[in-house]
Design brief:
alpha/beta, Rossmann fold, two-stranded parallel sheet, 42% helix, globular, 7-stranded mixed β-sheet
Length: 264
Amino acid sequence: MKTSGNDSPTIIKLEDYLSSLPTGIMSGEDVQLPDHSFRKIFEFVDLNEKDVFYHLGCGNGRGIAIASEEFGVKKAVGIDIDSKKIDEAKQFLDEKKLYNTQVINENILNSQFDDASVILFWFTDTKIIESMMDKFEKMGNECKIITIWGPLPGCLPDQIDFPYIINQVPFRQAKDLKEQLLAVFGSKCIDFVNAWEFAERYTKAIGAPDAGNDRFLTIIQSLVIWINAKNLGVACTDEIPPAIKNYMGILRNFFNIEVEHLIK
């Protein structure tokens, strides 16, 4: 544990703590979705034999296999910049003899997917997302882009089964972040119960069944959700709810993490 000169624990800000973690822990990047999450996503988007499905950042190809084998898509294509993952995906798909599938070792910023009707896109890097928006906006009408946790920037979601969100081409533009946030949560304001429920859905969606840190991540995510709502003026009360205060205290007293400075 890091300490100050007088041997008392050093309190660190939440954003500094998060930046010290492996990227995938909070964002989901470089995290392989569990099979049950792929099935939930594909049921949500009504994936079927008429669809051409692309998974951008396909990892080991399990999502491609499920789309082909269980949902009978016309074609399933995975793209990933990691050559080792693509090699693993190719071997996995070859063993299953799924010949309507393809995996490509490529940077998605250079990829072509004009024939897609459904795209799974799970990235948090703002530069990547902004660069991909031009590609997405040029897709054919009714192409569905599935994201996890948040909708595409500046867009109102067309369908939500949180944390899974669908934006459909042509995109509907949000007036501002406030309108977008309320659309995602489907309520007029955000309270602690909302924040906890949605944070828990997210951690369960991306976590393995035996994950041991789900509750800790849920606490952090719920605080982030509520604080963002408070700063945008859509929290249900101007006062900090007792539960939020309690969890802030837990993070400070037991983990030396401070979040109060984030509240504007």
